[in-house]
Amino acid sequence: MRDLFAPYACPSDVLRLLLEEAWGAGAHLLQLDGRKAFIGICRYQDKDVDLNPHTDALERNLPAESGHSLKAQLSANIYIDIPESGGELELWGVEPTEDEYARLRGERTWGIDRDKVGPPRTVIKPAPGDLLLLNPRQIHAVRPSGDRPRITLGHFIGFHGEDRPLELWS
Length: 170
Description:
The protein has helices spanning 2-5, 11-22, 98-105; strands at residues 27-29, 31-32, 35-36, 41-45, 51-54, 72-81, 89-91, 122-124, 131-134, 140-142, 150-159, 166-169. It is of the alpha+beta class. A hairpin with a 6-residue loop joins β11 and β12 (166-169). The longest helix is centred in the N-terminal third of the chain and has 12 residues, at 11-22.
């Protein structure tokens, strides 16, 4: 990733360093089984791909014995390229419990049918260079790109308390 942005700093590195410097207790990469997590996943959403309504929760993707529990989780998305038509971020402002989310998801392996959540409360059309922070535990989606791919850098920020470091991963 760093090579792609050279000679400029990779936006994910800049975000990570700013959080480390700005947060009183610092920030570091999430560690699992003694290994550091990656931060700054590049999401390439091709034309006509619908990122259905969904939520993201760290605990859902970890083994129960990992012992990770967060007080809050943020998603920090940096927008690299956005199509002229489509690619909007949809927000519902609803944070279902894990049981409610499983019920909404039904037999699907990922995401929720749009007809189960109705229209979004907010729709945002980001521009290249924007940084958007959102609560990924609330239902959100990305509309299909119409004329060209949508490219973003995705990051998660875990909050354990004001006196503890932030944890970062993708």
